[in-house]
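Ticket opened by: R.M.
Priority: normal
Category: complex prediction / small molecule

The reporter submitted a protein together with adenosine-5'-diphosphate and asked that the result be attached to this ticket for the collaborator who will pick it up next week. Submitted input follows.
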Amino acid sequence: MSGPLVVARSVNVVFGSGGGMVHAVKDASLSVSAGEAIGIVGESGSGKSTFARVLAGLQRPTSGEVLFSNESIYTKGKAYRGDKRREVQMVFQDPYGSLNPRITALSAVSEAVKLYNPGSRNDAQEQSLALLARMGVSEKDSRKKPRQLSGGQRQRVSVARALSANPSVLLADEPTSAIDQSAQAQLLNLFRGLLGDGLSIVLVSHDLGVIRYLTSRVYVLKSGVFVEEGPTGEVFDNPQHEYTHTLINSIPGRHVADRT
Ligand SMILES: Nc1ncnc2c1ncn2[C@@H]1O[C@H](COP(=O)(O)OP(=O)(O)O)[C@@H](O)[C@H]1O
Ligand SMILES: [Mg+2]
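Result attached by the on-call engineer:
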């Protein structure tokens, strides 16, 4: 495996100013290698989503930098332009927010296929159906609108849409939080398959079971600071930081193996 694909160096994010100031991410550094799955865990409000948005180029850090293949993700003030555009794709907790309610799953994926593969207009539909099938969405369900699909199906449509860019890195922010346990297991197994195909995954979750199932390395975020980082099994079995210890003992999902 080559060097890291994505590197964050000393990232700070400060929202607001004066008395309303929130220092959401503090001096956070991280690296993701090709084909690697890393986890980011922490309690609600610890800065996980903010940091994920920084990696995705959706939130400009107040200071610090994010590199993709050793180059800043910013070109003339804009994130992931040109060749980098397709490389990092994000899926969110609530796919309702990212799927247009008025168009079918197939149209949503086809739109993205055409956007990222301009040469593919004619077989965009075929490619989209293949991506959806890979995510376990049948042709029949592909022709439904988001509200006619289950939460798990919607989430898998969002992933299919993200994959249409043929990214190197998939950033998933609490992708399993809004879906039931069998849908969670199905999604995690699909993520495992994607990892096997060489994709890198950054999985943000407050569910340690989900993190344990999928990731090989984990970063523990507390009030915007990475307080601990290491191989997931080691960190969870032998936490070095008091906060990690408390998380492990207070957060549900410690027995994900039972459900997957
Ligand atoms: N756009 C924003 N403006 C102001 N404060 C924000 C904004 N986004 C997040 N925050 C604050 O930053 C902190 C971290 O939030 P977030 O990254 O959503 O945490 P998490 O995803 O771990 O729950 C919280 O205190 C939150 O209120
Ligand atoms: Mg969040």
